[in-house]
Queue: 2 jobs
Job 1
Amino acid sequence: MSGQPEFTSEIRDGIEFFDCGDGNGFEQCARCGSSVGFDDCWNCGGDGTVEVDWGDDLCYSAYERRCEYCAGRGGRYVCCSSREYCEANPMPERAHIASPALPPSTSKPVSDSPSAMGTEKEGV
Ligand SMILES: [Zn+2]
Ligand SMILES: [Zn+2]
Protein backbone atom coordinates (compact mmCIF):
# COMPACT_ATOMS: atom_id res chain seq x y z
CA MET A 1 0.00 0.00 0.00
CA SER A 2 2.73 2.36 -0.85
CA GLY A 3 1.39 4.28 -3.76
CA GLN A 4 1.69 3.62 -7.42
CA PRO A 5 3.29 0.58 -8.93
CA GLU A 6 6.64 1.36 -10.39
CA PHE A 7 7.30 0.69 -14.00
CA THR A 8 10.75 -0.11 -15.04
CA SER A 9 11.74 0.46 -18.58
CA GLU A 10 14.57 -0.38 -20.82
CA ILE A 11 15.47 1.18 -24.15
CA ARG A 12 16.65 -1.08 -26.89
CA ASP A 13 17.02 -0.16 -30.53
CA GLY A 14 15.00 3.00 -30.13
CA ILE A 15 12.11 1.26 -28.43
CA GLU A 16 11.29 1.67 -24.78
CA PHE A 17 10.08 -1.52 -23.14
CA PHE A 18 8.07 -1.05 -20.00
CA ASP A 19 7.80 -3.81 -17.49
CA CYS A 20 4.77 -3.56 -15.28
CA GLY A 21 6.18 -6.12 -12.93
CA ASP A 22 3.48 -8.75 -13.23
CA GLY A 23 4.50 -10.32 -16.47
CA ASN A 24 2.80 -7.62 -18.46
CA GLY A 25 4.44 -4.87 -20.32
CA PHE A 26 4.12 -2.55 -23.20
CA GLU A 27 6.33 -0.79 -25.65
CA GLN A 28 6.52 2.63 -27.09
CA CYS A 29 8.82 4.59 -29.30
CA ALA A 30 11.66 5.77 -27.11
CA ARG A 31 12.08 8.86 -29.21
CA CYS A 32 8.63 10.31 -29.85
CA GLY A 33 6.48 8.18 -27.54
CA SER A 34 4.23 6.84 -30.27
CA SER A 35 2.90 3.35 -30.10
CA VAL A 36 4.90 0.74 -31.89
CA GLY A 37 4.17 -2.05 -34.29
CA PHE A 38 6.00 -5.25 -34.93
CA ASP A 39 7.60 -5.61 -38.29
CA ASP A 40 7.96 -9.28 -39.12
CA CYS A 41 11.35 -10.30 -40.32
CA TRP A 42 11.31 -10.85 -44.06
CA ASN A 43 13.81 -13.64 -43.81
CA CYS A 44 12.19 -15.95 -41.29
CA GLY A 45 8.62 -14.69 -41.47
CA GLY A 46 8.53 -13.87 -37.81
CA ASP A 47 9.61 -17.24 -36.47
CA GLY A 48 13.07 -16.17 -35.48
CA THR A 49 14.44 -19.35 -36.98
CA VAL A 50 14.98 -20.56 -40.49
CA GLU A 51 14.87 -24.17 -41.48
CA VAL A 52 17.91 -25.49 -43.21
CA ASP A 53 17.76 -28.80 -44.95
CA TRP A 54 20.62 -30.65 -46.40
CA GLY A 55 18.79 -32.14 -49.34
CA ASP A 56 20.51 -35.47 -48.95
CA ASP A 57 18.23 -38.36 -49.84
CA LEU A 58 20.12 -40.87 -47.80
CA CYS A 59 20.30 -38.89 -44.72
CA TYR A 60 17.68 -36.26 -44.84
CA SER A 61 17.85 -33.93 -42.03
CA ALA A 62 16.73 -30.48 -41.29
CA TYR A 63 17.53 -28.25 -38.51
CA GLU A 64 16.57 -24.86 -37.46
CA ARG A 65 19.05 -22.14 -37.34
CA ARG A 66 18.63 -18.87 -35.62
CA CYS A 67 17.77 -16.22 -38.15
CA GLU A 68 20.71 -13.94 -38.58
CA TYR A 69 18.67 -11.03 -39.81
CA CYS A 70 16.63 -10.57 -36.70
CA ALA A 71 18.92 -12.42 -34.29
CA GLY A 72 16.11 -14.83 -33.48
CA ARG A 73 13.65 -12.14 -32.48
CA GLY A 74 11.32 -12.69 -35.41
CA GLY A 75 11.43 -9.10 -36.45
CA ARG A 76 11.68 -5.80 -34.76
CA TYR A 77 9.58 -3.13 -33.25
CA VAL A 78 9.10 0.00 -35.26
CA CYS A 79 7.60 3.35 -34.42
CA CYS A 80 4.08 3.61 -35.83
CA SER A 81 4.56 7.24 -36.69
CA SER A 82 6.24 8.33 -39.83
CA ARG A 83 9.97 8.74 -39.74
CA GLU A 84 9.42 12.39 -40.46
CA TYR A 85 7.18 12.90 -37.46
CA CYS A 86 9.30 10.81 -35.17
CA GLU A 87 12.44 12.73 -36.00
CA ALA A 88 10.73 16.09 -35.68
CA ASN A 89 9.02 15.40 -32.37
CA PRO A 90 11.33 13.76 -29.90
CA MET A 91 10.30 13.66 -26.29
CA PRO A 92 12.38 15.69 -23.85
CA GLU A 93 15.89 14.32 -23.52
CA ARG A 94 15.25 11.69 -26.17
CA ALA A 95 16.48 13.56 -29.20
CA HIS A 96 19.67 11.53 -29.23
CA ILE A 97 17.80 8.30 -29.80
CA ALA A 98 17.71 7.25 -33.40
CA SER A 99 14.21 6.97 -34.75
CA PRO A 100 12.98 3.38 -34.97
CA ALA A 101 10.38 4.38 -37.53
CA LEU A 102 10.71 2.84 -40.93
CA PRO A 103 12.12 5.27 -43.44
CA PRO A 104 9.72 5.96 -46.30
CA SER A 105 11.95 4.30 -48.84
CA THR A 106 11.81 0.94 -47.11
CA SER A 107 8.17 0.99 -46.14
CA LYS A 108 6.27 -2.04 -47.19
CA PRO A 109 4.57 -1.64 -50.52
CA VAL A 110 0.91 -0.88 -50.07
CA SER A 111 -0.06 -0.88 -53.70
CA ASP A 112 -2.24 -3.94 -53.34
CA SER A 113 -5.75 -2.58 -52.97
CA PRO A 114 -5.11 -0.32 -50.02
CA SER A 115 -8.76 0.65 -49.81
CA ALA A 116 -9.83 -2.93 -49.20
CA MET A 117 -8.01 -2.97 -45.92
CA GLY A 118 -10.21 -0.29 -44.44
CA THR A 119 -9.02 2.36 -42.09
CA GLU A 120 -9.46 0.67 -38.78
CA LYS A 121 -7.35 2.01 -36.03
CA GLU A 122 -5.57 -0.49 -33.93
CA GLY A 123 -6.76 -0.47 -30.41
CA VAL A 124 -4.64 -1.31 -27.43
ZN1 LIG B 1 14.40 -13.31 -38.93
ZN1 LIG C 1 8.76 7.46 -32.88
Note: The first helix runs from residue 83 to 88.
Job 2
Amino acid sequence: MLVDGFEQRLDVAGPDAPDTDLGPTQRPLRDFPEPPPVAEHGPARVVAMCNQKGGVGKTTTTINLGAALADYGRRVLLVDFDPQGALSVGLGIDAHDLELSIYNLVMERGIRVDDVLQETPVKGMDLLPSNIDLSAAEIQLVSEVAREQALSRALYPLLEAYDVVLVDCQPSLGMLTVNALTASDGVIVPLECEYFALRGVALLQETIEKVRDRLNPRLQIEGLLATMYDSRTVHGREVLARLVEAFGDKVFHTVIARTVRFPETTVAGLPITSFAPDSPGAAAYRQLAREVLARWPVARSRS
Ligand SMILES: Nc1ncnc2c1ncn2[C@@H]1O[C@H](COP(=O)(O)OP(=O)(O)OP(=O)(O)O)[C@@H](O)[C@H]1O
Ligand SMILES: [Mg+2]
Protein backbone atom coordinates (compact mmCIF):
# COMPACT_ATOMS: atom_id res chain seq x y z
CA MET A 1 0.00 0.00 0.00
CA LEU A 2 2.60 2.42 1.16
CA VAL A 3 4.78 1.60 -1.76
CA ASP A 4 1.86 2.07 -4.17
CA GLY A 5 1.23 5.53 -2.77
CA PHE A 6 4.78 6.55 -3.41
CA GLU A 7 4.72 5.00 -6.84
CA GLN A 8 2.21 7.67 -7.75
CA ARG A 9 4.09 10.50 -6.19
CA LEU A 10 7.52 9.81 -7.56
CA ASP A 11 8.34 9.89 -11.22
CA VAL A 12 11.27 7.93 -12.45
CA ALA A 13 12.72 9.92 -15.26
CA GLY A 14 14.11 7.88 -18.05
CA PRO A 15 12.18 4.64 -17.81
CA ASP A 16 14.63 2.02 -18.83
CA ALA A 17 14.96 1.41 -22.50
CA PRO A 18 16.51 -1.67 -24.12
CA ASP A 19 19.97 -0.18 -23.68
CA THR A 20 19.78 -0.64 -19.92
CA ASP A 21 19.75 -3.55 -17.56
CA LEU A 22 16.21 -3.01 -16.44
CA GLY A 23 12.71 -3.68 -17.61
CA PRO A 24 10.39 -0.80 -18.44
CA THR A 25 8.73 1.23 -15.70
CA GLN A 26 5.25 2.59 -16.08
CA ARG A 27 5.89 6.15 -15.08
CA PRO A 28 5.71 9.03 -17.48
CA LEU A 29 8.22 11.87 -17.34
CA ARG A 30 6.94 14.66 -15.18
CA ASP A 31 6.75 17.98 -16.91
CA PHE A 32 8.87 20.62 -15.30
CA PRO A 33 8.76 23.79 -17.34
CA GLU A 34 11.39 24.40 -19.97
CA PRO A 35 13.64 26.98 -18.31
CA PRO A 36 13.52 30.40 -19.92
CA PRO A 37 16.76 31.47 -21.56
CA VAL A 38 18.93 33.86 -19.58
CA ALA A 39 20.07 37.12 -21.16
CA GLU A 40 22.76 37.86 -18.58
CA HIS A 41 24.92 35.63 -16.47
CA GLY A 42 25.71 35.59 -12.77
CA PRO A 43 25.88 35.89 -9.88
CA ALA A 44 26.17 32.15 -9.49
CA ARG A 45 24.24 29.95 -7.12
CA VAL A 46 26.75 27.62 -5.46
CA VAL A 47 25.60 24.07 -4.76
CA ALA A 48 27.57 21.35 -2.96
CA MET A 49 27.01 17.72 -3.97
CA CYS A 50 27.40 16.09 -0.63
CA ASN A 51 27.11 12.72 1.11
CA GLN A 52 29.85 11.24 3.26
CA LYS A 53 28.85 7.80 2.02
CA GLY A 54 30.98 6.71 -0.94
CA GLY A 55 29.71 5.68 -4.37
CA VAL A 56 26.23 7.21 -4.18
CA GLY A 57 26.40 9.23 -7.41
CA LYS A 58 27.85 12.58 -6.30
CA THR A 59 30.34 12.84 -9.13
CA THR A 60 27.97 11.40 -11.74
CA THR A 61 25.33 13.94 -10.69
CA THR A 62 27.81 16.84 -10.71
CA ILE A 63 28.91 16.09 -14.29
CA ASN A 64 25.49 15.34 -15.72
CA LEU A 65 23.43 17.96 -13.91
CA GLY A 66 26.13 20.50 -14.83
CA ALA A 67 26.04 19.46 -18.48
CA ALA A 68 22.23 19.55 -18.58
CA LEU A 69 22.20 23.04 -17.04
CA ALA A 70 24.79 24.17 -19.60
CA ASP A 71 22.60 22.74 -22.37
CA TYR A 72 19.81 24.99 -21.04
CA GLY A 73 22.10 27.98 -21.59
CA ARG A 74 23.40 28.38 -18.06
CA ARG A 75 27.07 29.17 -17.52
CA VAL A 76 28.29 26.35 -15.28
CA LEU A 77 31.44 25.95 -13.23
CA LEU A 78 32.23 22.53 -11.81
CA VAL A 79 34.60 22.32 -8.86
CA ASP A 80 36.35 19.04 -8.24
CA PHE A 81 36.83 19.13 -4.48
CA ASP A 82 37.76 15.49 -4.04
CA PRO A 83 41.45 14.51 -4.04
CA GLN A 84 40.46 11.36 -5.95
CA GLY A 85 39.85 13.65 -8.95
CA ALA A 86 37.03 11.49 -10.36
CA LEU A 87 35.17 14.52 -11.70
CA SER A 88 38.26 15.68 -13.58
CA VAL A 89 38.89 12.19 -14.96
CA GLY A 90 35.21 11.90 -15.90
CA LEU A 91 35.66 14.96 -18.10
CA GLY A 92 38.69 13.54 -19.84
CA ILE A 93 41.38 15.36 -17.85
CA ASP A 94 44.56 13.58 -16.92
CA ALA A 95 44.73 14.45 -13.24
CA HIS A 96 48.40 13.42 -12.86
CA ASP A 97 49.47 15.86 -15.54
CA LEU A 98 47.92 18.95 -13.97
CA GLU A 99 50.36 21.76 -13.35
CA LEU A 100 47.89 23.71 -11.27
CA SER A 101 44.72 22.48 -9.60
CA ILE A 102 42.09 23.66 -7.15
CA TYR A 103 44.67 22.90 -4.44
CA ASN A 104 46.90 25.74 -5.63
CA LEU A 105 43.98 28.13 -5.99
CA VAL A 106 42.75 27.43 -2.46
CA MET A 107 46.06 27.12 -0.62
CA GLU A 108 48.46 29.52 -2.36
CA ARG A 109 48.38 33.24 -2.88
CA GLY A 110 48.76 34.96 -6.23
CA ILE A 111 47.52 32.06 -8.37
CA ARG A 112 45.66 33.25 -11.48
CA VAL A 113 42.33 31.55 -11.75
CA ASP A 114 42.65 31.41 -15.54
CA ASP A 115 45.72 29.23 -15.12
CA VAL A 116 43.67 26.66 -13.19
CA LEU A 117 40.36 26.80 -15.09
CA GLN A 118 39.87 24.17 -17.76
CA GLU A 119 37.29 24.08 -20.51
CA THR A 120 35.25 20.89 -20.72
CA PRO A 121 33.83 19.13 -23.78
CA VAL A 122 30.50 20.78 -22.91
CA LYS A 123 29.93 24.30 -24.23
CA GLY A 124 29.38 26.75 -21.38
CA MET A 125 30.77 24.42 -18.70
CA ASP A 126 34.21 24.95 -17.13
CA LEU A 127 36.08 22.97 -14.49
CA LEU A 128 38.42 23.65 -11.61
CA PRO A 129 40.19 20.28 -11.58
CA SER A 130 41.77 18.44 -8.70
CA ASN A 131 44.12 15.61 -8.03
CA ILE A 132 45.76 13.92 -5.06
CA ASP A 133 47.56 17.19 -4.12
CA LEU A 134 44.26 18.30 -2.57
CA SER A 135 44.57 15.65 0.15
CA ALA A 136 47.33 17.76 1.72
CA ALA A 137 44.90 20.68 2.09
CA GLU A 138 42.79 18.72 4.58
CA ILE A 139 45.71 18.80 7.03
CA GLN A 140 47.22 22.16 6.06
CA LEU A 141 43.92 23.99 6.46
CA VAL A 142 43.66 23.02 10.12
CA SER A 143 46.30 25.57 11.08
CA GLU A 144 45.08 28.33 8.73
CA VAL A 145 43.25 31.49 9.74
CA ALA A 146 39.59 31.31 8.60
CA ARG A 147 40.25 27.75 7.53
CA GLU A 148 36.62 27.00 6.70
CA GLN A 149 36.40 29.91 4.23
CA ALA A 150 39.32 28.97 1.99
CA LEU A 151 37.18 27.68 -0.89
CA SER A 152 34.68 30.48 -0.51
CA ARG A 153 37.50 33.04 -0.91
CA ALA A 154 38.85 31.25 -3.96
CA LEU A 155 35.45 31.11 -5.68
CA TYR A 156 34.31 34.63 -4.88
CA PRO A 157 35.94 36.37 -7.88
CA LEU A 158 34.37 33.81 -10.23
CA LEU A 159 30.75 34.11 -9.17
CA GLU A 160 29.80 36.95 -11.51
CA ALA A 161 30.81 34.96 -14.58
CA TYR A 162 28.63 31.91 -13.91
CA ASP A 163 25.02 31.05 -13.18
CA VAL A 164 25.73 27.84 -11.31
CA VAL A 165 28.73 26.45 -9.45
CA LEU A 166 28.54 22.75 -8.54
CA VAL A 167 31.06 21.50 -5.98
CA ASP A 168 31.72 17.75 -6.01
CA CYS A 169 32.61 16.75 -2.44
CA GLN A 170 34.68 13.84 -1.25
CA PRO A 171 32.97 11.08 0.78
CA SER A 172 33.75 12.49 4.22
CA LEU A 173 32.63 15.28 6.50
CA GLY A 174 36.14 16.64 7.00
CA MET A 175 37.61 20.08 6.42
CA LEU A 176 37.23 19.99 2.62
CA THR A 177 33.52 19.25 2.87
CA VAL A 178 33.04 21.92 5.54
CA ASN A 179 34.75 24.35 3.14
CA ALA A 180 32.38 23.31 0.36
CA LEU A 181 29.35 23.84 2.63
CA THR A 182 30.66 27.22 3.77
CA ALA A 183 31.00 28.32 0.14
CA SER A 184 27.53 27.11 -0.89
CA ASP A 185 23.97 28.40 -1.06
CA GLY A 186 22.50 24.91 -1.29
CA VAL A 187 23.29 21.23 -0.86
CA ILE A 188 22.10 18.36 -3.03
CA VAL A 189 22.35 14.98 -1.31
CA PRO A 190 22.48 12.01 -3.69
CA LEU A 191 21.33 8.77 -2.03
CA GLU A 192 21.69 5.31 -3.51
CA CYS A 193 18.40 3.41 -3.37
CA GLU A 194 19.56 0.61 -1.09
CA TYR A 195 18.75 -0.32 2.47
CA PHE A 196 21.48 1.60 4.26
CA ALA A 197 20.92 4.78 2.26
CA LEU A 198 19.54 6.70 5.21
CA ARG A 199 22.35 5.72 7.53
CA GLY A 200 24.52 8.74 8.08
CA VAL A 201 21.98 11.25 6.73
CA ALA A 202 21.28 12.48 10.28
CA LEU A 203 24.98 13.16 10.77
CA LEU A 204 25.12 14.99 7.44
CA GLN A 205 22.10 17.08 8.44
CA GLU A 206 23.78 17.91 11.73
CA THR A 207 26.92 19.05 9.94
CA ILE A 208 24.87 21.19 7.54
CA GLU A 209 23.04 22.78 10.48
CA LYS A 210 26.28 23.52 12.31
CA VAL A 211 27.75 25.16 9.23
CA ARG A 212 24.56 27.17 8.78
CA ASP A 213 24.58 28.34 12.42
CA ARG A 214 28.24 29.14 12.71
CA LEU A 215 29.60 29.96 9.29
CA ASN A 216 27.04 30.34 6.51
CA PRO A 217 23.44 31.34 7.25
CA ARG A 218 22.56 31.11 3.50
CA LEU A 219 23.01 27.34 3.43
CA GLN A 220 19.96 25.19 2.79
CA ILE A 221 19.27 21.64 1.71
CA GLU A 222 18.20 21.95 -1.90
CA GLY A 223 17.01 18.39 -2.19
CA LEU A 224 17.71 14.71 -1.79
CA LEU A 225 18.23 12.82 -5.02
CA ALA A 226 17.47 9.12 -5.24
CA THR A 227 20.03 7.45 -7.50
CA MET A 228 20.65 3.96 -8.86
CA TYR A 229 16.98 3.14 -8.57
CA ASP A 230 15.94 -0.32 -9.72
CA SER A 231 12.21 -0.31 -10.35
CA ARG A 232 12.06 -4.10 -10.69
CA THR A 233 12.81 -4.71 -7.04
CA VAL A 234 10.45 -4.25 -4.12
CA HIS A 235 13.57 -3.31 -2.23
CA GLY A 236 14.27 -0.28 -4.42
CA ARG A 237 10.66 0.89 -4.17
CA GLU A 238 10.67 0.48 -0.40
CA VAL A 239 13.79 2.55 0.00
CA LEU A 240 12.20 5.31 -2.09
CA ALA A 241 9.06 5.12 0.02
CA ARG A 242 11.11 5.44 3.22
CA LEU A 243 12.98 8.40 1.79
CA VAL A 244 9.80 10.28 0.97
CA GLU A 245 8.27 9.33 4.30
CA ALA A 246 11.27 10.81 6.10
CA PHE A 247 11.94 13.88 3.95
CA GLY A 248 8.72 14.66 2.07
CA ASP A 249 9.07 17.40 -0.52
CA LYS A 250 12.81 17.64 0.02
CA VAL A 251 13.09 14.51 -2.15
CA PHE A 252 13.37 15.45 -5.81
CA HIS A 253 10.58 14.07 -7.98
CA THR A 254 13.26 13.11 -10.45
CA VAL A 255 14.76 9.73 -9.65
CA ILE A 256 17.86 8.44 -11.42
CA ALA A 257 17.55 4.81 -12.50
CA ARG A 258 20.41 2.34 -12.38
CA THR A 259 21.92 1.85 -15.81
CA VAL A 260 25.24 0.66 -17.18
CA ARG A 261 25.44 3.75 -19.34
CA PHE A 262 26.84 5.83 -16.45
CA PRO A 263 30.02 3.79 -15.93
CA GLU A 264 30.45 3.83 -19.72
CA THR A 265 30.38 7.64 -19.82
CA THR A 266 33.24 7.82 -17.32
CA VAL A 267 35.39 5.77 -19.66
CA ALA A 268 34.41 8.07 -22.53
CA GLY A 269 35.26 11.19 -20.46
CA LEU A 270 31.90 12.76 -21.36
CA PRO A 271 28.60 13.48 -19.61
CA ILE A 272 25.76 11.19 -20.62
CA THR A 273 23.97 14.16 -22.20
CA SER A 274 26.78 14.25 -24.82
CA PHE A 275 27.73 10.56 -24.90
CA ALA A 276 24.19 9.20 -25.25
CA PRO A 277 21.87 12.21 -25.52
CA ASP A 278 18.81 10.11 -26.33
CA SER A 279 19.28 7.66 -23.46
CA PRO A 280 16.93 7.55 -20.47
CA GLY A 281 19.84 8.57 -18.23
CA ALA A 282 20.37 11.78 -20.21
CA ALA A 283 16.62 12.49 -20.07
CA ALA A 284 16.71 11.96 -16.30
CA TYR A 285 19.45 14.52 -15.75
CA ARG A 286 17.77 17.01 -18.11
CA GLN A 287 14.62 16.61 -16.02
CA LEU A 288 16.64 17.10 -12.82
CA ALA A 289 18.07 20.31 -14.32
CA ARG A 290 14.54 21.59 -15.02
CA GLU A 291 13.38 20.59 -11.54
CA VAL A 292 16.36 22.27 -9.89
CA LEU A 293 15.85 25.48 -11.88
CA ALA A 294 12.14 25.48 -11.02
CA ARG A 295 13.02 25.27 -7.30
CA TRP A 296 15.54 28.08 -7.30
CA PRO A 297 14.51 31.58 -6.37
CA VAL A 298 14.38 33.87 -9.40
CA ALA A 299 16.46 36.67 -7.91
CA ARG A 300 19.81 35.19 -7.07
CA SER A 301 21.58 38.30 -5.90
CA ARG A 302 24.06 37.65 -3.11
CA SER A 303 23.14 40.52 -0.84
N1 LIG B 1 22.45 5.75 -11.98
C1 LIG B 1 23.51 4.95 -12.02
N2 LIG B 1 23.41 3.69 -12.50
C2 LIG B 1 24.48 2.87 -12.54
N3 LIG B 1 25.71 3.22 -12.13
C3 LIG B 1 25.88 4.45 -11.66
C4 LIG B 1 24.80 5.39 -11.57
N4 LIG B 1 25.28 6.55 -11.04
C5 LIG B 1 26.59 6.34 -10.82
N5 LIG B 1 26.96 5.10 -11.18
C6 LIG B 1 28.28 4.47 -11.06
O1 LIG B 1 28.52 4.20 -9.69
C7 LIG B 1 29.85 4.50 -9.34
C8 LIG B 1 29.87 5.55 -8.23
O2 LIG B 1 29.29 6.74 -8.73
P1 LIG B 1 29.94 8.16 -8.42
O3 LIG B 1 31.41 8.12 -8.67
O4 LIG B 1 29.15 9.18 -9.13
O5 LIG B 1 29.66 8.24 -6.86
P2 LIG B 1 30.33 9.20 -5.78
O6 LIG B 1 29.30 9.41 -4.73
O7 LIG B 1 30.91 10.39 -6.43
O8 LIG B 1 31.51 8.28 -5.23
P3 LIG B 1 32.69 8.75 -4.22
O9 LIG B 1 32.05 8.87 -2.89
O10 LIG B 1 33.67 7.62 -4.30
O11 LIG B 1 33.22 10.04 -4.73
C9 LIG B 1 30.54 4.95 -10.61
O12 LIG B 1 31.19 3.86 -11.20
C10 LIG B 1 29.39 5.41 -11.49
O13 LIG B 1 29.66 5.27 -12.87
MG1 LIG C 1 32.85 11.20 -6.32
Note: Residues 1-11, 14-28 have pLDDT under 50 and may be disordered.
